[in-house]
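Q: What would this complex look like in 3D?
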Amino acid sequence: MSALIETQQAVRIIDGEIPTTLVGGIDLVVHPGEFVAITGPSGSGKSSLLYLLGLLDIPTNGEVFVEGKATSKLDENARAQLRLSTLGFVFQFHFLLPEFSALENVKLPMRALGKLNERQMQARAEELLTSLGLADQMTKRPDQMSGGQRQRVAIARALANDPAVILADEPTGNLDTKSSEQVIAILRGLVSQTSKASRAVIIVTHDLELAARTDRRVHVVDGKIASEEQLTPHSG
Amino acid sequence: MNLVLTIALTHVRFRIRQTIVGVFGVAVGVGFSIMMAALMEGSQNDFVTQLVDSLPHISVTDERRDPPPQPATLAYDAAEIHGLSTASIRPGIKNPFATMAAIESWLPGAVAPSVQAKGVVRYASRDTAASLVGVDPRREGAVSKLATQIRQGSIENLYKASNAIILGDQLAKKIGARVGNTVTVVGGNGNSIHCTVVGLYHSGVSQADQTQAYMLLKTGQILAGQTGLVNEIRIKAQDVMASRDLARRIESETGYKSVSWQEAHEDLLSAFELRNIIMYMVVGAILLVASFGTYNIISTITHEKTRDIAILKSLGLRQDTVRRIFVLEGAIIGVIGLFVGWALGYGLTLIMGQVEFKSPFIDANRLPLLYSWRHYIVAGSVALAASLVAGWFPARKAASVQPVDIIRGAS
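A: Here is my prediction, written as C-alpha cells for the whole assembly.
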C-alpha cells in the first residue's frame, strides 16, 4: 500500500545567531488507515515535525511527500491548496473563528475549496456536527460552548473537506478527562470505520496513555526518532 | 455568500463601534468635500455668469495690439528708423456697419455697435464721473441684458426724448436724479449737453450701477466729439465658451483688437483655477485624513485577527484570499461611508443654501451653490480609492502572516 504521507530525511533548522535544529533528519511513513502518535518531551521537535507533515512549514533539507507528491518545491498557493483538499488540522486550542457559529466554522474549509454548493455544504456541516454529538450546538458561537464541544467542532471542521490525513497537535491537551475520552474516541473512529480506511490520523501528544491507544507510537527526542513501536498490527 | 465577503462582513459587523468610527470619518470627509465643492464652484459659476451676462462676450475696439509696421521694415530685412513721431489716427472703427455685416455673415450670435466715452454727469450741482455708452436700442437687447435690467422706463424710451439717457440706479441716487429730470452730461473733450433721464437700470454689479449711463449712439457720438464714430462692436456669441476662438478669428479678419470675455478677465479666471486647485487639495487632504481612520481600523482588525488569519491560512486559504478579505473590509467601510457622506453632503449643501447674508457688492442674499453629480463622483471615488489603499497595507501584512509562527506561539 502506498504511503499517504511521508518524510525523507526531513530537517528543519531555524536560522539565527545560533541555528536551532528543530527536526534533525526524520524518515516517517504513514499509510492509509493508520492512527499514529508522535510523542516526546517538550522541545523534542514533535510539533515541528507535525507542521512539516502538514505543509505549514518547509523543510530546510529533505522532502515531505503527500499522496506521493513532493511538496518542498511547491509555491505557497499550491501548498495551501494541498492543505485545503488533503489535510485536516486539529490544534490544542480549538482555533475556531469566534464570530462564526459552529456550523459556519465547519463550512469555512468547504467554502474555500468551492466544490459544493451552499445546500450541500449545509447538509455536510450538519451531518458532521450531528455525528460528533453537536446537533444542538450548531448555531452557537465558540464562546457559548464548552472546551470539549469546541474541540469537536474543530474536528468537524478538519473533516469538512474529507481529507486523507488528519493532523492533531495535542488535541486533548486543554480538555478534561471526559472530553479527552470523547475526542480520542472520535479520532480513533476516523480510521477504524471500514469506509474511512483510506484515511490516516497523526496526533502529537505527550500523554503516553493516549499514545498507547493508537496503532503506532513514534517517539521523538532532540529532533530525531528515538524509537518506534507498533502497538496494533496494521494491514499496510 | 462568497467566503471573502462573509468573513469581511463579519469582521466589520462584530467591530461595530470601530466600523462606525471609520464610516463616520469617510462620511464626514465626503460630506464636507461635496459641500465645499458646491460652495466654491457655485460661487465661481455665479460670478462668471454675472460677468458673461452683464458684458458682451466679445468686444471689438478700435485699438490694435501692435502698431502698424513701418514701410521700411517691410521692404528690408533690417532697418533703423530715427525721428518718428506717432501719427495722429482718427479714432473709431473704419466702416463699422460694413465690418459688423461681415462679422454677422458667419458668426452665430448677435452684433451691436457702441460708442464708449468718459464724461461727467451733473445734476443739482452734484457731479459724478461716468462711463457713457452710446447704443443702438434695437440691437442692444441682443448683446446685453440692459433691456431686462431697466427698473424704471424702458430701453425704447431712448427714442422718446431728445438726448435721452438711462442711468445706473446708484449713479442716479448719488446725484439725486430721477426719471424725468434733466441732467447735464459733459463729454471728455468738453462737449456739454442736457439729457433727459428716461430710465434707471440695475445690473447687480455695483461698479456698473454706480458709473454707467446709456444713451443713443448718436448722442454718444456728440459727447465723444465725432459724428459717425463707433469705437466698439459688442458681440454676444451663441456658444459662450467659444468666445475666445471667435475673437481670434474676428481679430485676424478685421485687424481690430477683439477681446473675449475670457481674455478680459484672464486674471480672474486664473485666480479661479488656482482656487480650484486649492479646493481639490483641501478636499484631498480631508479625504486623506479620513483614510487614516480606515487604515487604523483595518490595521487594528488585522492585528487582533492575526491568530484567525493564521488559522485560515493553515486551513488552506491562499495569501491573496486573505489579502482580499481585508481590502474588502476597507472597501466596505469606504462604500458605507461614501453613501452616508453623499447624504451628509447633500444635507449640508441644502443647509448652506438656506443661509442668508447681505453683501454690499452683489444682490444675492443666499450663498450661490452648485449641485453637481460630478462632486459626488469625485469625492466618492477619492474616498473609495483612499479606503482601498488604507485597507491594502494592513491586508498585505496580514497575508504575509506565517501560520506556523502564530500557531507555535499560541501552543
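A: To summarize the key features: Chain B has two domains: 3-52+268-410, 91-256. The longest strand of chain B covers residues 109-123.
Q: Very helpful, thank you.
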